Amino acid sequence: MVSVGSGADFFNVSGGEASGNTITAGSVGITSNFSDGLTVRDNTITGADHGIAFDRVATSSVTQNTVSNTGTGIYLSSVQNVDISGNQVSHAAVDAFYLNAYGSSGNVIHGNVFRDSATGIAVDATFAEAPLASMSLPLAPFSAYAAFQIAPPPGGGAVATTGAEGVVFGNRFINNSIPANVSPFSSVRFYNPLPEGGNTWDTYDESSEGCVDADHDGFCDSPYVIDPASGVLDQYPHVANPCAVPGSCVSNVLFLPGIEGSTLYDEAAGKTVWLSDSDATADDLRLDADGTSVNPNITASGVIASASLYGITHTVYGDLLQEMQNWQTKYNIIATSTPYDWRLGYDTLLHPVHSRVLAKEISRFRISTKRRC
Predict the structure, then answer these.
(1) Running DSSP on this structure, what letter comes out for residue 16?
(2) Rounded Cα–Cα distance for residues 20 and 40 (Å)
(3) Residue 114 and residue 70 in contact, taking contact as beta carbons nearer than 8 Å
(4) 3-class DSSP assignment, residue 340
(5) In Å, how far are 138, 194, 206 from 141, measured between CA atoms?
(6) Preceding amide of 296 cis, omega within 30
(7) For 113-159, where are the E strands, in sequence order?
(8) Which stretch of DSSP H or E encloses residue 357?
(9) Angle 212-202-164 (CA atoms, 0-180°, nearest 5)?
(10) 8 Å CB contact between 44 and 65
(11) How far, rounded to the nearest angstrom, does the alpha carbon of residue 352 sit from its chain's CA centroid?
């Protein structure tokens, strides 16, 4: 346990790791300047002015840390290709997460929880030679420093949210006095394309707050203006509990009928061999000793909705198939059935040559075909 001062300080280094530490008090818990290839993970930091601080750091990661009761939880300035994920940051007096986007690029902030702080996330876009006053800069110019310099927006206009400086998605912002304070000159993007989408904002994740999810896809149907002053949007904000409305969390359905539940058809003879009133078709169903069909022209042609045998009609899967059609409209899902040649063995059945339709559906629904005992 480190109880005073900086728990770890990486200065102008390539490679290094700080993990499994408990750090209390001090100016900065874990800090790095002018470095690359760092890993900061699984640390617990409380009571510092800055919990974790990176200044001009590249190709590094900050993951699975718990930071609380700090001035700023995680502080980044002019960083490139830094991954910030799985962190729990709370009770920051200033910002739970801060990014000076000037000179930053390629950063990913995802899967974090920022809560109970003055500001959930702050994004600045101004040049600061020494953002952390307690840290000294190298006397000699940093070899990669030129890579961090960018020109201000032409004419002083706002930069489009292209995500060039960083992408913020899959995070939860909970009970912060100000959810976000974002410079209009930053190109940080607060969402990814669907299905990942944006973030969860507790000020805009329920219908009473304007977050309406009419199509039940788990995202608000309208973007969220996360910072009214800059007009920056989260295009796909998450719904707080997408399953709260009955029927709003319904999976796609692929129905496989039971043994003898698929119609078998002889393509060469142009006749149905299962189901059939004729006992003469029994020979068409025979298999060789190795489990292959004696008649190579037999295919599965459909799921049996009903069957008429000896003058009596029986409903088999007809009611279920009709209900599945209703599900597609009611729940906006894929609900389909797939016939298969139920005579064949497991490995033969899953081979695309023998059951093209079944193999295609299994691939489309990403069903595992691994055997389970």
Answers:
(1) E
(2) 9
(3) no
(4) coil
(5) 7, 42, 51
(6) no
(7) 113-115, 119-124
(8) helix 356-364
(9) 90
(10) yes
(11) 31
CA distance 49 to 30: 11
Give, in order, the Cα–Cα distances in Å from 207 to each of 49, 75, 195: 37, 33, 21
Handedness of CA 158, 161, 166, 167 (dihedral sign): positive
Q: Which of 57, 68, 61, 62 is nearest to 23 (CA)?
A: 68
Q: Which residues contact 114 (CB under 8 A, 6 or more apart)?
A: 73, 89, 90, 96, 97, 120, 121, 171, 172, 173, 174, 176
Q: What is the distance between the alpha carbons of residues 61 and 41, in angstroms, rounded to a whole number? A: 8
| Predicted model pTM | 0.61
- Enter the tokens of residue 362: 């299994």
* pLDDT tens-place values along the chain, 373 residues long: 444 455 788 899 999 899 999 998 777 899 999 999 999 999 999 998 999 999 999 999 999 999 999 999 999 999 999 999 999 999 999 999 999 998 899 999 999 999 999 999 999 987 644 344 333 333 222 333 223 333 333 333 333 456 788 999 999 999 999 999 999 888 899 999 988 999 999 999 988 999 998 887 889 999 999 888 888 899 999 998 766 655 566 778 888 888 889 998 888 888 888 877 666 567 788 888 888 888 888 888 889 999 877 778 888 999 999 999 888 877 777 888 888 888 887 667 666 555 555 656 556 555 444 443 3
Q: What is the dihedral of CA 100, 104, 109, 114, to 10 degrees?
A: 0
Question: Within 13 Å, how many C-alpha atoms sit on residue 70's CB side?
Answer: 34
- The four Cα atoms 76, 101, 179, 42 give a dihedral, to 10 degrees, of -30
The single residue listed with the structure tokens 């919990």 is 51
DSSP string, 266-315: ETTTTEEEES-S-GGGGGGG-B-TTS-BSSTTEEEEEE-SEEEETTEEEE
